[in-house]
Amino acid sequence: MLAYTYLAPHQFALTEKERPVLASPRDAIVKVTLASICASDLHIKHGSVPRAVPGITVGHEMVGIVEVVGSEVHTVRPGDRVAVNVETFCGDCFFCKRGFVNNCTDENGGWALGCRIDGGQAEYVRVPLADQGLTKIPDTVSDEQALLAGDVLATGFWAAKIAEIRPDDTVLIIGAGPTGLCTLLCAMLRSPAQIIVCEKDAERQAFIRAHYPTVDVVSPEDCRSHIAKYCDRGGADVVFEVAGADNTFRLAWECARPNATVVVVALYNAPQILPLPEMYGKNLTFKTGGVDGCDCGEILALIAEGKLDTLPLITHTYPLAEIDAAYELFEARKDGVIKVAIRP
Q: For helices 178-188 and 152-163, what crossing angle results, to 10°?
């Protein structure tokens, strides 16, 4: 089968591999019907994910049809349409029982697919711990509607959940890439008083204004002054840092009011400075880390109910045979791209 493979830092290639087979009775084999490129794939490409294993098939955002299941898989069966969770997790360890599935202690727990083991930018994928790693797609939900549920939308959902947004809050989201937009969608579910998105790219600013007209949009240069003008508590109540750029971590905590919550969703390419003497007295709460991707069922139900819609985010679709061109478009942010779907 065709599989997009991490050969070495800065080198991905479409290669021929054997179809995966069951390696455990808790495994399932899924025929991939649609996959997507994620910014985390670019981090692997550029050597920013040290745990990524050369030789693996990349890709951790996909949907498909179950082909084969192991003898200890009970929640899905062959023929089921499924969304693949970005994280595989055992459901039994200390962390899983508390919902912290990103830190599952199983050898295949956490972010394994497309990082430590073969992922889904391929024709087939083996999913370990399939009872937790796969979620049935409702009949009324298309592959395209479900595509982002297991990763980037799960990340936005997790971020909004841990932020504990209240109805009278002002929410600031820094960065309007795919993860920032999914964070926006999930923050909107919680109906805060005001949402402000800080984004430098003019095309993405226009996208937000066209699709989410109740949301304020500002540039990074105007963000501090806008917050000062429209937030009478001295800053935003909740800040999501989703950009991961050179100065956006500082911008995030500077725009937060005293005693605010700052949720760091971004994955950085370099260490960030936490200037404690400067922020002393603001009494900020920082929440950060990898997504605990265990809400896929709830997310798919919200999609089926029409309360979450990521279809506008999928701006381009490529066949797997042309995935090099898809990566080039996505990395260069050409042609107004937000998310690229890959069809095997």
A: 50
DSSP string, 195-257: EEEE---HHHHHHHHHH-TTSEEE-HHHHHHHHHHH-TTSSEEEEEE----TTHHHHHHHTEE
Q: Give CA–CA dist 185/160, Å, rounded.
A: 9
Give the tokens for residue 343. Answer: 């069809």
The residue type found at 233 is R
Residue 297 tokens, joined = 């069922």
Whole-number Å distance between alpha carbons of 199 and 264: 16
Residue 183: which residues within 8 A CB-CB, separation 6 or more?
A: 155, 156, 159, 160, 173, 240, 242, 265
Tokens of 279: 């922020």
Q: How far apart are CA 117 and CA 109, in angstroms?
A: 11
Whole-model pTM: value is 0.95
The answer to whether residues 49 and 111 touch, using CB atoms and an 8 Å cutoff, is: no
CB burial string 259-277: b at 16+ within 10 A, e below:
ebbbbbbbebeeeeeeeee
**Beta carbons within 10 angstroms of residue 154's beta carbon:** 26
Q: Which two tokens stand for residue 206?
A: 């226009």
Instruction: Give the C-alpha separation, 81 to 205, whole Å.
Output: 35
Give the distance between the most distant pair of CA atoms in the chain.
61
User: Which pLDDT tens digits describe the chain residue by residue (344 residues)?
Assistant: 999 999 999 999 999 999 999 999 999 999 999 999 998 999 899 988 889 999 999 999 999 999 999 999 999 999 999 999 999 999 999 999 999 999 999 998 999 999 999 999 999 999 999 999 999 999 999 999 999 999 999 999 999 999 999 999 999 999 999 999 999 999 999 999 999 999 999 999 999 999 999 999 999 999 999 999 999 999 999 999 999 998 999 999 999 999 999 999 998 878 899 999 999 999 999 999 889 889 999 999 999 999 999 999 999 999 999 999 999 999 999 999 999 999 99
